[in-house]
Each structure stands twice: as structure tokens, then as C-alpha cells.
Amino acid sequence: MTDEADPHLATLARLDELIEDSGLDRSDVLDPARLSLGTGLPPEVVAAGLDRRPMAAVSFLEQVGQRLEFLRATRLRPDGRPYPLKEIADGAGLTSQWLGQIVKCEKKPSLEHAARIEDFFRVPRGFLTATPSQALDRALRVRLADEQSRLMAEFKSRNQLGGIAFRGLRDASPRTLAAVQALIDSIATDHHGGPARRKRS
Q1: Which residue, 58, 113, 160, 199, has most beta carbons within 10 Å?
Q2: Among 40, 61, 60, which Cα is nearest to 121's?
Q3: By the 8 A CB rule, do 27 and 140 touch?
């Protein structure tokens, strides 16, 4: 497998590095059940991708039908019931018959029609059509951004830097933040203990 064929591998490597450097629990950060909800992939397929094993794939027709049924099962109406096909079709500007054929894996949707269904359920574009690796990559990128934001928030809180924007450090690794922390600690020590002495060359 290559990163080009399986784009999630590169993002997974970055997350694994962040998890290791931060001492986080990998099973908590990379929970297959939670990632399944954001990808439309079964948890066992997500688990395979997280273990860098081949991710089971089905035909495009089956994939779209399965992910549409996944959306109906996980994105419920306000009354807690699944959306009927007619309501989805009306909301997406499609016919119930055509949508029923998609669910039965008898019809291949165009990207425009898939996008209308994705908009109806308020999920990202490509939710229905992305390959398993692409779908997992998108979910992993969200997890990576969340963990980086959390680390930055903790860093700013610890150093009382709430009003300062660190655009260059937004995607910083724990190692980079540790280096910046050491610099801040060094400056604070020099400030409180008198000016730092310069070594003569």
C-alpha cells in the first residue's frame, strides 16, 4: 500500500506521532466506532485501516447504497425515526423511485445527485462516493486538527497566553511545543533571576 493509493496512511502517521509524543491513549483518540460515524464505514473496516491492513471495499453501487442506508440509520429525524425515502427525495430534489434504485444498488448516482443527498443529511461532500481510504483520511484529519487545537489551548493556558494568536504554531507537533515551552521557561528564568549572562567567546 502507498500513501497515494491510501491517503489515510500519511494522516495516520502524523496522528500516531502526536499520540506517542503526547502520551495519549491511541484507542481513545482513534476509536473505530466514533470514526465509523464520520465515515459511513463499518467499524471493522475502520479498524483495519487504523492497523494499516487492507480495507474491505465493495462495488461503487453497493458503497453508495450502504452509505445512504448508514445515513438513514444514524442521522435521524427530530422525532427519532429514520427519514423515509420520499422525504429524502423531496428534500434533495430527486424522485423516490430513483432513490429507491440507489438503495437497492440498481442505479449509479451522478456526483451532483450524490451531493444533493449529502447536503440533505448535512455531511461533507464525498461522504457517499469517497473510497474507504479517502473517507477515513477525512475523519482522521478532523481528529488531528482537534488534538492539535487541544494541545495549543493547553499550551496557551499553561503560559497565560490567551490573547495571543500563534498562527505559525497552529499545527505544531508536541515536540515543537515542548521546544517553545523550554524557550519560554528559559526566558522566564532569566527574567526572574536577573539578566542572562552572555558567554565570552
Answers
A1: 113
A2: 40
A3: no
